[in-house]
Structures are given as C-alpha cells and as structure tokens.
Design goal:
With 156 residues, this protein is mainly α. The chain folds into two domains: 2-93, no CATH class; 105-155, no CATH class. It contains six helices and two strands. It has helices at residues 27-53, 66-72, 83-93, 105-123, 127-143, 149-155; strands spanning 2-5, 8-11. A two-stranded antiparallel ribbon has the order 1-2. Helix 4 packs antiparallel against helix 5 (127-143). The chain is extended and about 45 Å long.
C-alpha cells in the first residue's frame, strides 16, 4: 500500500510476511529480516504520524478531516493498521497540508523521478527515455562531488 503526501508517494509496510520460509537453516535470516522489517515499519509510522501531527486543525483544508487527523496523530492508532485504517489514511488524510519540516525533499523528489521511470518502463511509456536521461544527468552531477567516496568506488 502507498500513502500519497503532497506529491510524494510513500510505501507503507503494515505486517511481516507470515508465509516466510521456516526451514531451520533460514530461521536466523528470517528473524533478522522480520526485525529489520519491524524497524522500517516503526520508523515509517513515526514519520507519517509526525507529518499528521503537524497538520493544523485551523487550516480550512484540514478542518473537515479533523476526526481522522486527531485519530492518526496519536501513536496508539499506528500499532495495528487494518484495511479500514489504510483506507482512511489514503482517502481522508493523505495530501492534507502539514507544517512538519521535511529535510529530505530533494531526495524524495529524486525517488519520485526513479519511481516514475520504473512505471514508464513497466508501461512501455515513451516518457521513459526522458526520465532515464534525467537520472543519468543527476548521476553525472554526483560524479564530481568529492564527498561521495562510495560513489567513486562503486561506479568509477
């Protein structure tokens, strides 16, 4: 599932895969994977809750959705999200303005370009060529940045 927030699409992980392979040799990997998934889910839920908590109830766009904003501004609402909660978040809360500071806006914009490129490739959309060229342009700009050593080791 994805939650759309001010032109950015955020994937939301709600539960671990219960059908994971439970062979004895993969039990440790499964435990590590589930712990990592739980950590990602918790960080994502906290980020989304912070964004919702930053929504002003005085805003004329937020006011009609007050009940949903107040509900999901509380940490308790994020402990278990069912299909109804997912629907409420997508239909009622996503896209509302928030005063929460977003320090990674440029990174999210790049992620959006990559996501659109993947969609264009999947859909065999002619826009793929232009999006691909944009990613190549951004990558070439990163080449000259001296404080990105991992980039130089991996790609040069």
């Amino acid at each position: 599932m994805e939650v759309v927030s001010q032109n950015a699409t955020l994937p939301v992980a709600f539960s671990a895969n219960d059908g994971a392979d439970k062979r004895p040799d993969s039990a440790v990997q499964d435990a590590d994977g589930l712990a990592a998934l739980d950590e990602i889910r918790e960080r994502l839920a906290n980020d989304l809750r912070t964004e919702i908590a930053g929504m002003s109830l005085d805003n004329f766009l937020v006011r009609p959705k007050r009940r949903f904003v107040e509900k999901y501004a509380e940490a308790k609402a994020w402990s278990q999200l069912n299909a109804d909660a997912q629907h409420e978040l997508i239909e009622q809360v996503a896209g509302l303005p928030s005063a929460a500071a977003d320090d990674d806006l440029v990174a999210k914009q790049f992620d959006l370009v990559v996501f659109r490129t993947e969609l264009a490739l999947f859909r065999v959309d002619p826009a793929f060529r232009g999006l691909k060229e944009r990613i190549i342009e951004i990558a070439s700009l990163l080449e000259v940045i001296p404080n990105v050593p991992w980039w130089r080791r991996k790609w040069l």
